Amino acid sequence: MKRVSAILRDAQPHWVGDGFPVRSVLSHHQHGAAISPFLLLDYAPPFHFPPTDQPRGVERHPHRGFETVTIVYQGGLAHRDSAGHSGVIGPGDVQWMTAASGVLHEEFHEPGYAARGGIFQVAQLWVNLPARFKMSPPGYQTLLAADIPKVELADAGGVVHVIAGAFAGVRGPARTFTPVSVWNMRLRGGAAVTAAVPDGHMAGALIVAGRVRVGSSEVASEAEFVLWDRAGQDASVTALEESTVLFLAGEPIDEPVAARGPFVMNTADEIQQAIRDYQSGKMGQMD
Q: Which of 104, 112, 102, 105 minimizes the C-alpha distance to 75?
């Protein structure tokens, strides 16, 4: 069994645009290779927005060298990018955008949700790409809740929604470049889950709601992140009350990481090239 290496607490809130009050619970700049193949996890805990006819969000901005995965728990989100992709996601839906060689995109509250107002709650994960895939064409996957398979746990212990990777032999719909698992677990109090994670792979869990016990006695609560050691196999979670857990695992990408703002490459020269390409319009245009 993998050993818990850290429970990451007290991530400071900050705003991304005017629509995303987030906590960066994971960051490559802070946690380094321990979280590879992931680079960042921003969590926006429940926040009430009043109604508006001007949807809040983030204006167009570039990305290169990785993927963004956005999971909506409450509210609604609309996406549009310079590669011609667009989509709207609501509770239980997932948006998986592959920036790769470069794309401009914008993210705003879905107009219907913005007009109604209400609680907004999302998580956004950045997934690194190996060097050989960083200059692949951009891509986009809308993964609707109805198309995400779920596994019912024994003794009515809850359900695992399999977004990427496989749980109990059930494979999620997300197409990934390297072995990555993303599972949304909704657990009843007392339910225990053991996740099959290979030796050497990263494993971690964001506590979206509730309280869980991990390892022998450690307890993690809402908006905290559990990080397990790479060494050993499998990771276990026991819900101490009704809980929602976003579980992540993946094969590390053991390559240099050069990151600057919205660009993640392997060398400083590649970052400079990304900046030049963005400034010269090579990442596309948006009307």
A: 112
Q: Distance of CA 206 to CAs 43, 82, 89, 137, Å?
A: 9, 31, 21, 30
Which tokens hold the place of 15? 């705003």
Q: Is 59 exposed, middle or buried (0-12, 13-18, 19+ CB in 10 A)?
A: exposed
Give the tens place of pLDDT for each residue, 145-166. 999 999 999 999 999 999 999 9
List the structure tokens of 54.
Answer: 């001007």
Contacts of 42 (CB under 8 A, 6+ apart): 16, 20, 22, 23, 24, 25, 123, 124
The type of residue at 161 is: H
Residue 90 has pLDDT above 90, yes or no: yes
Residues 6+ apart with CB under 8 A from 30: none
Residue 85 is which amino acid? H
